[in-house]
Design brief:
mainly beta; binds the ligand N[C@@H](CCC[C@H](N)C(=O)O)C(=O)O; Diaminopimelate Epimerase, Chain A, domain 1; 18-stranded mixed sheet
């Protein structure tokens, strides 16, 4: 991956929105690494956009008629990776159209470079839309920003659904069967644009989470003591396909004020604790009411993120198991709220939240 250039396309109707193409003077001007196009083109593909190009000190402005995001993704320049950046409550991802191959177009190492917020595009992960298997419509794979591959991603699968709708030019309500490392996941795009996801059933058996913490009689780890640097935290372990350690505070401690946590200090100690052989995501939770919770997350392979969909699901399961909450909750995350329901009749968890385009771009590989 080499030199840098970017293009951002935005509609003429909004004075705050612009379209830019720029190349760094110090790098190969003929080899742009980044071309960015704004979400507005996605929202109204037929809106005329303004394109501003700046190369070294010169700049040109041109109107681009009928910019189409799908057309942008259809471009197949050799040596370039086309992508769309999405976010779900600030948990951001580089989405790659990988429908023509069952192997991701880039390696975990390349993904980690693209996720770098200073030297790359910047994201919490890279998500690939691959062909479906076992009767599913698509397969979703994801690399975390450190290059590791998790089984599932809740915010990511909402972005995935919106990405597929854009690639397939679908409008309105649609649902998809997605094969993931956590099994079958079914997101449904609703009329209001939010995505409701059937996240399947939580896994509570300690060895399947996985955790080496001693299990209860029913093999679950609920409100168990975990020693972290000499402090005992009460934790409940839940897998949503990927491992989560949920805590409402320390032994004998008061209701935790999550804003006061030194997340960057404590998070890695949970993530890499010896009782979690596959590392873990950790959610720190404050209870406002039995249907309103607030959490901060330290993600395995990505650190502190603004939201974690699987984490919010794990939090509601843990809160119900610990007798702290009802099955239908609003979970506030740093990036905004998610609606989570753990349905008694089928044991499935449903997550509802937004997914938005940030920009379109391409990078040389
Ligand atoms: N942010 C995601 C979870 C992404 C995977 C996680 N970092 C892991 O390694 O398990 C979500 O929204 O669920």
């Amino acid at each position: 991956m080499g030199a840098i250039a970017a293009a951002i396309s935005l509609p003429l109707t909004s004075p705050t929105r612009r379209s830019l193409t720029f190349l760094t003077a110090s790098r190969r001007p003929s080899s742009p690494i980044l071309k960015l196009n704004s979400p507005s083109a996605a929202a109204s593909p037929r809106a005329p956009t303004l394109r501003v190009s700046a190369v070294s000190s010169s700049m040109s402005v041109e109107a681009v008629e009928k910019a189409s995001p799908a057309a942008f993704l259809d471009r197949r320049e050799a040596g370039f990776l086309h992508f769309v950046k999405y976010h779900g409550l600030g948990n951001d991802f580089i989405l790659v159209d990988n429908r023509d191959s069952s192997e991701p177009k880039i390696s975990p190492e390349q993904a980690a470079k693209l996720c770098d917020r200073h030297f790359g595009i910047g994201a919490d992960g890279v998500i690939f839309a691959l062909p479906g298997i076992n009767g599913t419509d698509y397969t979703m794979r994801i690399f975390n920003s450190d290059g590791s591959e998790p089984e599932m991603c809740g915010n990511g699968v909402r972005c995935f659904a919106r990405f597929i709708a854009e690639l397939e030019n679908l409008q309105g309500k649609h649902s998809f069967k997605i094969h993931t490392g956590a099994g079958l996941i079914i997101p449904e795009i609703q009329e209001d644009g939010k995505v409701k996801v059937d996240m399947g059933e939580p896994i509570l058996k300690a060895s399947d989470v996985p955790t080496r913490l001693p299990a209860n009689k029913d093999q679950s780890v609920v409100k168990s003591g975990l020693d972290v640097d000499g402090v005992t935290w009460n934790v409940t372990c839940v897998s949503m396909g990927n491992p989560h350690c949920v805590t409402f505070g320390t032994e004998g401690g008061q209701n935790m004020k999550v804003d006061e946590l030194m997340l960057a200090d404590i998070g890695p100690k949970f993530e890499n604790h010896e009782v979690f052989p596959a590392r873990t995501n950790t959610e720190f939770v404050q209870v406002f009411t039995p249907s309103h919770l607030k959490m901060r997350v330290w993600e395995r392979g990505a650190g502190a993120t603004l939201a974690c969909g699987t984490g919010a699901c794990a939090v509601v399961v843990a809160a119900v198991l610990e007798g702290r909450a009802e099955r239908n909750c609003t979970v506030d995350l740093p990036g905004g709220p998610l609606q989570i329901e753990w349905r008694e009749e089928n044991n499935h968890i449903y997550m509802t939240g937004p997914a938005e385009v940030v920009f379109y771009g391409s990078v040389p590989l």
